[in-house]
Amino acid sequence: MDLEQLLPRNIQELKPYVAGKTISEVKKEYRLNRISKLASNENRLGCSPVVKDAVLRALQQIQDYPDPIAGELRKKIADKHGVKEEEVILAAGSESIISILCKTFFKNGENAVTADATFVGFFVQAGVRGINLKKVPVTSDYRFDIDTILDTVDENTKMIYIANPNNPTGTYINKNEYGKLLKGLPEHVLLVMDEAYFEYARSVSDYPNALENRPENVIVLRTFSKAYGLAGFRIGYGFADERLITEMLKTKLTFEPTTTAQFAAFAAMDDQDFIERSVETVKKGINRITGFFDSHHIRYADSISNSVLMILESEEEAVEFTQRMLESGVILRRVNAFGLPNCIRITIGTDDEMSHFEESFREIYSIQKS
Amino acid sequence: MDLEQLLPRNIQELKPYVAGKTISEVKKEYRLNRISKLASNENRLGCSPVVKDAVLRALQQIQDYPDPIAGELRKKIADKHGVKEEEVILAAGSESIISILCKTFFKNGENAVTADATFVGFFVQAGVRGINLKKVPVTSDYRFDIDTILDTVDENTKMIYIANPNNPTGTYINKNEYGKLLKGLPEHVLLVMDEAYFEYARSVSDYPNALENRPENVIVLRTFSKAYGLAGFRIGYGFADERLITEMLKTKLTFEPTTTAQFAAFAAMDDQDFIERSVETVKKGINRITGFFDSHHIRYADSISNSVLMILESEEEAVEFTQRMLESGVILRRVNAFGLPNCIRITIGTDDEMSHFEESFREIYSIQKS
Predict the structure, then answer these.
(1) Is the pLDDT of residue B368 over 70?
(2) What percent of chain A has pLDDT over 70?
(3) Are B62 and A232 in contact (CB under 8 A)?
(4) Per-residue pLDDT averaged across A90-101, rounded?
(5) Measured between CB atoms, which of A11, A52, A249 is closest to B250?
C-alpha cells in the first residue's frame, strides 16, 4: 500500500491527533490522589442537576435515531434569541459546525483568513477540507489584528474566522473593532464569529454580541460545551441567514446531535442559575490567578473567557512547567497547536483547584527561581 | 447574497434533507393512539437494560470532553475481534465513518463505485465531498452486481462501497461473490464492506464475514445503531489496516463519539443475550411477513437483515400505500432516495407491530383490490 499515492496532499500534511493523558492515567503514572484538570476549558462545577432526569427520559427512545433538526430545542433557542427557527442549526459541538462550514462553502482553491493564534479546531477542519489558510499574527497583546485581517482578504477569500473571546488567549475584539470588521467585510466573504465563551463575556460593556448585529453574511456560533458543562454530549449551535442554514443542513451528519444531547441541552437552558454560578466562579478565579501572576511577575493575556493564557519566556520553559505541574497533579494545556509554543492555557477551576495550582507553582519556582 | 456564486456546485446539487414525521406528530395529525414505527430499521425491543447504569456513570464526567479515541471501548472491541487496537476506529455512527472515508481518501476528480440501490448515507456523503459516483444497477433480484461493479472500476476509482447485507434491500453478497470481489480488486482501490446489519446476517452459512478475510485495502464497518439498539447515541466502528486508521483519525471530529455513547456501548457489549433475543425476534418477523406477502401475492426481496423490501408496481402505488399506512398509524419508509422509487422498506418489529402492519394492510387492500 503506497500511502503517498493513496492520499490527498492536505491529508498527508495533517498531524495525527495526540490525546492527552486521562485523569486516571495521570493518577496511576505519578501515584497521585489529588488531580486538578485545568486543561480543556471545561466547567469545573460540572453541569446543571436537571440534566440527569432529562437524560433518563431520553433513554426511553434511545433505540431510535435522533430528531435530525433537533426541532424542539431549535425552537427553544430561536425563541430565546428572537430569531426564526430556520436561522438556527444544531450540531455535534462547535467543531462540527466548523466542519460543516468548511464542507459547505469552500470551493477548491478558496482561502480563509484568521489569526495565527486561535482555536486549533478551525486550523484542523480547514486542513481536512484542503483550504488555504491565511494566518494573520496576533497583536503584541495577543488580540486579533482586524486591520491586517481585512487587508489580507482577497478575491479568493471565502471566510474570516474570529473566536470572540478568543481561544486560547481569552482576549476579545471590542464593539469598535467589530464595527470596523463589518464595515470592511466584502459581500463575497462570510464572517464566522465563534462565541463559544459568550456566557463568560457578555457582561463586559464593550464586548460585541454578534447576534445583535448580524448582517446576512455573518454566522454566529455558540455551544453547550463551556458554561453549560455539557462537553461530553457534543452539542453546539449556530445562527445565520436561513438560506445559509439550509445549505449547512445539507452537509451536517443526518442525525447529529444525539438524542441525549438534545434532551440535556433543552433541560439545561432552564437552569440559568447554574450558568450564573459558573460565570461567577470563573470571574473570581480570574481575579485570583491574575493577582497571583502579578505578584510573581508572570506575564499573561487579559481574559474575559474561562481561561488565562500564561506567557513564558520560551517553548522549553512551557514544556518543563507543564510537565512539572502534571507531576504534581495539575493538568494544563500547552497551546503550541494553537500557534503559541511558549504559552500555557489555564482553565479557571474551583477555589480548591486554584489553590492546587498556586501551591504547585510555588513549589516549582521556589526550586527553579530561588 | 448570490448563492449560486457562493456555493460549490456539488453542494448546490445536494437535496436538503426532509425529516419524516415524528411519532408525536403522527399521533396528533391523525388522532391515533397506536403507532408502529417500522421506518428506520431500529431495534423495536429497545436496548439492553444495562445501558441505563452505564449512562448514569457517564454523567459524572459529562462536563469533560470525551476520550478522543474511545480508548477503553476500542480495546474491548479489538480484543473481542482479535485485532490490534490500532486497527479500530470509533465514530458517531456508520454515517460518520463514511463521511470520514470520503474526507480522508478522495482526491479531487476521483470516483467511487457502488450499486444504484444502496444506503443513501453513502450517496449523500459522496455528494458532500464532490465525489463522482458510479452507480451500477442492482440485479433483477435486488443484489449487488459484482461483475459489473468490477468492470466499472477505472484508474480514477478510489473506493468500492458494498453494504452487506444491503440496505434497503436486505439482500447480500455471498462468500463466492466476496471472493470474486477480492480477487478482482485492484491495489489502488479501497473496498468498504458496510456490515451495519452483521448481527442479523452472521448465522447465514454463505454470508462472508469480511473481518475474517480482510486484505490491507479492505475496510469493514459495524455499528451499535441496529441490533444493539443504540441509534440515539450515534456510535459505530470500523476495522482497517492501522496505516489507514491513522489517516482516518486525522479527519474524524476530535471528540466523537460522545461520552454517553462510549459508556453505553461498552456496557451493551456485555449483554449478548439481548442481541440474541433481538435477532430471534427479527428472524421470526421475517418469516411471518414474507409468509403474509406470499399469501397476498406481494413481491419482496429475500432479506437476511432486519427489514424487508416490499416491491410495488409503481412509484404512485408506493406513495399511496405509505400514506394510507401512515394514516392507520404504521410508519414505513419509502426508499426513493435509496434508488428504489417503487419500493417500501419495512422494519421488522414486535409481534404486536407486525399484527398492526397486517391489519392495516388488509384494510387498505380490501378496499383497493376487492
Answers:
(1) no
(2) 99
(3) yes
(4) 98
(5) A11
d(CA B253, CA B100): 9
pLDDT digits (tens, 9 = 90+) for A128-182: 999 999 999 999 999 999 999 999 999 999 999 999 999 999 999 999 999 999 9
Is residue A369 predicted with pLDDT exceeding 60? no
Express each pLDDT in B280-334 by its tens digit. 999 999 999 999 999 999 999 999 999 999 999 999 999 999 999 999 999 999 9
Per-residue pLDDT reduced to its tens digit, B243-282: 999 999 999 999 999 999 999 999 999 999 999 999 999 9
Determine phi and psi for A346, rounding to 5 degrees. Answer: -115, 115
Q: Kindly give, in sequence order, each residue whose CB lies less than 8 Å from that of residue A13, ignoring residues fewer than 6 positions away.
A: A127
Cell of residue A92, nine digits: 455535534
Closest in A62, A104, A250 to B47, CB measured:
A62
Convert B139-152 to b/e letters by CB count within 10 Å (16 or more is b): eeebbbbbeebbeb
Residues B231/A64, Cβ–Cβ less than 8 Å: yes
Q: Which of B40, B50, B87, B260 is the mutation pick for testing A, counting most A CBs within 10 A?
A: B260
The whole-angstrom separation of Cα B197 and Cα B209 is 11
Give the pTM: 0.97
Query: In chain B, whose CA is at the least distance from the CA of A62?
Result: B232
Taking only residues 4 to 33 of chain A, the set having a beta carbon closer than 8 angstroms to any beta carbon of chain B reads 5-8, 11, 14-17, 19, 22
A residues 73-132 closer than 8 Å to B (CB): 92-93, 95-96, 99, 103-108, 121, 124, 128-129
Report the residue from A105, A187, A217 with minimal CB separation from B7: A105
Residue of A nearest to B225 (CA): A63
Side chain identity at residue A314, one-letter code: S
Q: Is B234's CB within 8 Å of A256's CB?
A: yes
Chain B within 8 Å of A250 (Cβ-Cβ)? yes
CA distance linking residue B17 with residue B40, whole number of Å: 15
CA–CA distance from B328 to each of B37, B285, B311 (Å)? 11, 20, 20
* Rounded CA separation A90/A74 (Å): 7
C-beta contacts of A350-357 below 8 A and 24+ residues apart:
A350/A44, A350/A45, A350/A281, A350/A285, A351/A284, A351/A285, A352/A36, A353/A36, A353/A38, A353/A44, A354/A285, A354/A288, A354/A289, A356/A34, A356/A36, A356/A328, A356/A329, A356/A330, A357/A36, A357/A38, A357/A289, A357/A325, A357/A330
Which residue spans within chain A are E strands per DSSP? 36-37, 88-91, 111-115, 132-136, 157-163, 190-194, 218-223, 236-239, 299-300, 307-311, 330-331, 333-335, 340-347
Q: Taking a contact as any Cβ pair under 8 Å apart, which residues of chain A between 135 and 174 contact chain B? A: none
Domains of chain B by range and CATH?
Answer: 3-46+272-369 (3.90.1150.10), 50-268 (3.40.640.10)
pLDDT class of B20 with cuts at 50, 70, 90:
confident
**Do the Cβ atoms of A56 and B52 come within 8 Å?**
yes
Cβ within 8 Å of residue B206, ≥6 positions away: B174, B175, B176
Query: One-letter amino acid identity for A95?
Result: E
